[in-house]
Amino acid sequence: RAKKSAPFGLCHISEDGMEELDRYLAIKLHLRQAVAKDELLLALQPQVNHSGETTSFEALVRWHSAELGVVSPADFISIAEESHVICDIGNWVIDETLNALKRFIARGLDLCVAINISAKQIVLPDFASSLIARINYYGIPSQMLILELTETALVVDIETVKNTMNELANYGFRFSIDDFGTGYSSLAYLKELPISELKIDKIFIDDIDNNSAKKGAPIVDAIIEMARALNVTSIAEGVETQEQVDYLTSKGCNRFQGYYFSKPQFVQHWHNSELG
Ligand code: C2E
Ligand code: MG
Ligand code: MG
Ligand code: MG
Where does the signal sequence lie (predicted)? Predict the structure, then answer.
């Protein structure tokens, strides 16, 4: 395609660049109203143990925009994180998750849900107190929630995050380090924080293939070993094949999440059909 340059301030942006910019601005504009317009949906993806039993779910937000159609979290979460919008979304996810847990309890199901907490949200001074207030309002035990933080979230403001994590851990919440191995946290930090779980990023799980039985997948092995040394559980994300399950099982990985077991399922659908 012919490259046409468009003047934009002092720089020149290619046609592709303009399209990208338009998309960015459109997402940014419409995202501000997404919560108010009730355009978000919650999906849950099972996390299973060695026996293939579902022990918990990860809560994953979905956005069906009236103007833009379905927009992937990969495209809108980072834009939401540029402003307080991520906190509106985060609070919506917390409330929706607590609603789902309430219905689980009503049906006698003993299942936990892991939620993704943004760096922007964990550093808010009232994050711990407002989360505790929310679970008490819904009557949900703190033990039913797992809070997923990325390594980036840990290092933004280590002292604040450490205090918040300690307060919540004392209250019974568990913490999982998401996308582990892709960030910049130091092992010294990890040792100081109340962490229950390391979540091995999909990019490392992708390294496990038919050959791994012979060659191994060194980073996966190292993370599982590290979890054991730190006395925390290990969970693999993005598990898609039987080879991966077999390899991870042989290495002692505790739990699995991925399309091999189930794609994320819309909560509404779930409550109506499978739970009756
Ligand atoms: P994540 O927390 O690492 O979530 C795992 C992502 O991998 C999800 O993508 C999930 O649908 C996808 N996935 C799970 N199993 C497989 C698999 O077997 N194969 C493949 N190809 N993908 C798999 P999703 O839902 O698009 O979310 C992307 C990222 O957006 C998440 O990565 C998380 O960082 C962020 N995100 C999603 N929901 C929320 C939320 O409620 N709050 C915040 N702060 N971030 C969220
Ligand atoms: Mg996650
Ligand atoms: Mg992850
Ligand atoms: Mg990931």
Answer: none
Cα dihedral 147, 71, 85, 10, rounded to 10, equals: 130
**Nearest-CA neighbor of 18 among 81, 80, 9, 85?**
9
State the Cα–Cα distance between residues 259 and 233, nearest whole angstrom: 21
238 alpha carbon – ligand 4 mean position (Å): 8
Give dist(CA 259, CA 145) in Å, integer.
22
For ligand 2, the distance from its centroid to the CA atom of residue 142, given in whole angstroms, is 18
pLDDT (tens digit per residue) in 164-209: 999 999 999 999 999 999 988 778 888 899 999 999 999 999 999 8
| ipTM value for the complex | 0.98
Asked if residue 183 has its Cβ within 6 Å of ligand 1, the reply is no
